[in-house]
Each structure stands twice: as C-alpha cells, then as structure tokens.
Amino acid sequence: MIVQLKGTLISKRPPLLAVDVNGVGYEVEAPLSVFDQLPAVGEPITLLTQMIVREDSQTLYGFSRESDRALFRELLKVSGVGPRLALAILSGVSGNDFALMVEAGDAQALTRLPGIGKKTAERLILEMRGRLPEQDGGGATAAAGDAASEARAALAALGYSSAEALKMVRAVANQDQPAEALIRAALKQKMSG
Question: What does the DSSP 8-state code read for residue 43?
C-alpha cells in the first residue's frame, strides 16, 4: 500500500495531478481543496495517499491533510459511496462543514453537494453520525483566513450550537465579507427572524 508520495510536482489538471518520485511518475486523483494548496509545477510536494485496488484499476487518491484522508476512508465505508463520490464530497465542502452537516442531520445541505441525492444524504447521516474522524481545526477553531469558519467559531463561542452557527453563517454568507461582518449579519438576521 502506498501511503505517501514525496517528490516533484509534474503536472496538475483537476482532478488529476502527477508526482515524480525518484524517476517514477505517479498519477493521483485529488479533491479540489488540494489543488488550492499545490506548489508550482517543478516544485517539491508531499501528499498523503489512499490506494484503491479494483479488478480493472489501481488508483491513488491524494490529500494534503491527514483529517481529509481519514474522512475519505470513513466515507468509503458508507453503503453506496465510492471513491469518486467521496472525492466529490471533499471537493465540495471542508471536512469541518461536512461533519457539522452530518451531526446536525442537515440532509438538505448535504443534497447541495455534487452527486448526493436525498437518499444518499440520509444514509450519510444515519451511518456517519457520531463516528466522524476529528477534523483539523475542530468545531470551535477556525482555519486561518477563512471568514466563514471564523464567524462560525465566534457564534459557537456565543453559545449557538455548531449546527446552528453553520446555518446562520450560510444564510448570510458572502465571500467578500470579513468574519466580523458575517457575525453581525448572522446575529441581525437571527434577531429579526
């Protein structure tokens, strides 16, 4: 089993990237979140990997964080979720947000992810609630520079549940707003609604 690749980035064309490891090129499929963090072609790279061996293929899936690889592995245990759907989920939402959706039982939010219908969303909630791997940054700790995460963390610190904080921020989310503006808008909407 190949669990890590450390080498030079050869190419990157989502969802595929190639890594040269001592003269051997490895093709890796990765969620879009990995592509946001990739160095320039020709630069050194380290990826955590999960190898899936099937009758007709051997595929490597790459991740920049252990928590994403752990979530990928847990998703594969859910009936009806294969590697492609698991990759699409990780491309569409952060691990923290996915965990919040599942723990809150928010099937409607899950159906907004690519490839997930109502039945799959309900199955994800049923089979994954309470057994999700711990994500980087935890529920109350925000990822640096992510205004929505900071706003959710602040609302959770004010006493709102993680799931409610997620819903509040989603209702007012605007990519260009700083965390403070999101918090104010979420609290204002909560008070008026």
Answer: S
